Amino acid sequence: MSQQHTAPPGAHRPSPELPEPPEQPRLADITRSAGAPAELPRVLDYDAQPAALPKPRKRRVAVLFIALGAGLVVVTLLSAALGQMQIPVTEVIGSLCRRAGLSCGAAPSHPLADAALWEVRFPRVVLGVFVGAALAAAGAIMQGVFGNPLADPGIVGVSSGAAMGASLMIVTGLAAGSSFALPIGAFVTGTLTAMLIYSMARSRGRTQVVTLILVGVAVNAFCGAALALMTFAADMNQREQIVFWQMGSLAGALWDAVATVLPLLVVGLVLAFGIAGKLDLLSLGDDAARHLGVNIERLRIYAIAIVAVLTAAAVAFAGIIGFVGLVVPHLIRMLVGPGHKVLVPASALGGALLLVLADTFARTAVPYAELPLGMITALIGGPFFFILIKRSRTKNGGWL
Amino acid sequence: MSALQRLGRSLTAPARPALGEIVVRAVDVSIALGGTEIVRGVSCEVRAGEVLAIIGPNGAGKSTLLGALAGDLSYGGSIELEGREVKDYPNRELALRRAVLRQTSTIAFPFDVVDVVKMGRAPWQSITSVAEDDRVIAQEMLRSDTFRFADRNFTSLSGGERARVSLARALAQRTTLLLLDEPTAALDINYQEQVLAVARQSARRGNAVIVVLHDLGAAAAYADQVLLLADGAMQAAGTPGEVMTAERLSEVYRHPVRVLPEHDGSLLIVPVRFADEPPGDPTQQPPETTAESETSP
């Protein structure tokens, strides 16, 4: 019997940094008269010998950021070089240098190379970077707000809500009048949809995944119908624009579009980074986050507005490109953990990288034809989503 | 905009009350949830240096009362924390003064244990230095014996380990008022005693601790005051010896309870156990036997 009371050797073996534990309290020491601190039984207390905390994964984070940054530079240069007109990377660098007033890189070998780069390729690549960053950052924030790795602007319907607003602008002809009409329309309906989803999917301070996905199904169905109606009502030119939109594409990107998206993206990313620390607390659940001083409702509404801004920035000119917001944050989380202060900027970089890569593939895979970008991201993202569902099922024993 | 306001409002660490000063004063508190009155007419005072245990049968309103004391639920009457009504505190000011440990501890994403405990320092951001925060975190992790698995994933821990990590997080908040909702429920005997001893030690160093407990013996041993709730009403309040009498506990819990004073002055509180059934033919079991076995704990 007494053998059961002695712990097996090594069961409570302290780690190297751990100071020797003080003596356990003896039964006789525990008396009701223990009022003064001096007479207290000894409990686990290491006040006198503070130990070093395990080091945060700073190296890993630094390596990730360097890898993502370098990868993004390489991929953007390659993306600018590849296409119907092959331009060597050295010439791409040379063209960039000439604009910057420097003399480096190679001179263009084709008379139209410079024009092709600056009027077609560069705006497209830059828009790809922006859209990818916006989508992935929006996905990371959304997952943090809902406390669920399956949340994504595309799946829950924010993207199609924003697409509806943008299509409305196209059909009413407002988009032809002002380059800001599209993003504003996308932003307004995107925000409204996000708020609707939020209010529908939450009950008693929790978001059930099933509810979230079901609300997403309903929202996507409704927005799909609205888009179909607008396609029906539109004239030929507008119709083409709308269809183009739903498939998602960066084709025909202009510097105007880049200039419109940039401020939305910058504002969205800066605000997103600002709330990143609080999103960590939110993962403890509503009550625990409130106990740590977070104003939950305000944070949620603020975060959803940020998601709407970022989604609008992405959707306004590129249309619906799904799964980037789902895949990228998940991969980053697997690499460096779920802390949002790293997750949000790393996801932005990763999203940019993935989208430029996907777009390069979309326009070079088939000669003289262009695959829709949304189709490619869905081809990668769909199976990934299955794996994610399967994993969360086996891990949590169901929908959790 | 709100970020600017937060920067402008420079927060400072709240002043610590002296030992014996009243930290929480609840007067005639009533709480209604969904139209039903769960708790009514509860009054209590907890001073710095004291542990108050809330005991009572299931559904007595213990956790609900704790929720109101934490500022989570709206309440009638008055709950003053350090002289100010709990519901009038801004969230962060409240987070600097009271920490809460709930029964369930879940997390949405796989954070490391050390990061979870670190979250307990969130209210102190820009009040204390990072070095100071790290010192507090290390201390509380050692105190709750979670330091050994500091870099493990919270989602990979057992229920008892999670409970201790959550305790470390609550303690890392370093608040004057500590609210614990059944902190010993998932723990083995060693940690049950350790956790309650840590809570009382925190009280002795100048804090107030309110703890909901099911273990009557532990409540008698570790609490200075006991509040006995039944059906949302206060049945008795006072020192463990005054409140926890055999007659009163037997009546409130609707089960005979024996209270035996030990030679060292502590109280041993044990329910009277059900008598064993003689083995019988399972096919001819009288219906009242099944009813009785259902009520046995």
From TrEMBL, chain A:
<feature type="region of interest" description="Disordered">
    <location>
        <begin position="1"/>
        <end position="32"/>
    </location>
</feature>
<feature type="transmembrane region" description="Helical">
    <location>
        <begin position="254"/>
        <end position="279"/>
    </location>
</feature>
<protein>
    <submittedName>
        <fullName>FecCD family ABC transporter permease</fullName>
    </submittedName>
</protein>
<dbReference type="Pfam" id="PF01032">
    <property type="entry name" value="FecCD"/>
</dbReference>
<comment type="similarity">
    <text>Belongs to the binding-protein-dependent transport system permease family. FecCD subfamily.</text>
</comment>
<keyword id="KW-0472">Membrane</keyword>
<keyword id="KW-1133">Transmembrane helix</keyword>
<keyword id="KW-1003">Cell membrane</keyword>
<dbReference type="InterPro" id="IPR000522">
    <property type="entry name" value="ABC_transptr_permease_BtuC"/>
</dbReference>
<dbReference type="InterPro" id="IPR037294">
    <property type="entry name" value="ABC_BtuC-like"/>
</dbReference>
<feature type="transmembrane region" description="Helical">
    <location>
        <begin position="369"/>
        <end position="389"/>
    </location>
</feature>
<feature type="transmembrane region" description="Helical">
    <location>
        <begin position="180"/>
        <end position="198"/>
    </location>
</feature>
<keyword id="KW-0813">Transport</keyword>
<feature type="transmembrane region" description="Helical">
    <location>
        <begin position="122"/>
        <end position="142"/>
    </location>
</feature>
<feature type="transmembrane region" description="Helical">
    <location>
        <begin position="210"/>
        <end position="234"/>
    </location>
</feature>
<feature type="transmembrane region" description="Helical">
    <location>
        <begin position="61"/>
        <end position="82"/>
    </location>
</feature>
<feature type="transmembrane region" description="Helical">
    <location>
        <begin position="344"/>
        <end position="362"/>
    </location>
</feature>
<feature type="transmembrane region" description="Helical">
    <location>
        <begin position="154"/>
        <end position="174"/>
    </location>
</feature>
<feature type="transmembrane region" description="Helical">
    <location>
        <begin position="299"/>
        <end position="332"/>
    </location>
</feature>
<keyword id="KW-0812">Transmembrane</keyword>
From TrEMBL, chain B:
<feature type="compositionally biased region" description="Polar residues">
    <location>
        <begin position="286"/>
        <end position="297"/>
    </location>
</feature>
<dbReference type="InterPro" id="IPR017871">
    <property type="entry name" value="ABC_transporter-like_CS"/>
</dbReference>
<dbReference type="Pfam" id="PF00005">
    <property type="entry name" value="ABC_tran"/>
</dbReference>
<protein>
    <submittedName>
        <fullName>Heme ABC transporter ATP-binding protein</fullName>
    </submittedName>
</protein>
<dbReference type="InterPro" id="IPR003439">
    <property type="entry name" value="ABC_transporter-like_ATP-bd"/>
</dbReference>
<keyword id="KW-0547">Nucleotide-binding</keyword>
<keyword id="KW-1278">Translocase</keyword>
<dbReference type="InterPro" id="IPR027417">
    <property type="entry name" value="P-loop_NTPase"/>
</dbReference>
<keyword id="KW-0067">ATP-binding</keyword>
<dbReference type="InterPro" id="IPR003593">
    <property type="entry name" value="AAA+_ATPase"/>
</dbReference>
<feature type="region of interest" description="Disordered">
    <location>
        <begin position="273"/>
        <end position="297"/>
    </location>
</feature>
<dbReference type="GO" id="GO:0005524">
    <property type="term" value="F:ATP binding"/>
</dbReference>
<feature type="domain" description="ABC transporter">
    <location>
        <begin position="24"/>
        <end position="256"/>
    </location>
</feature>
<keyword id="KW-0813">Transport</keyword>
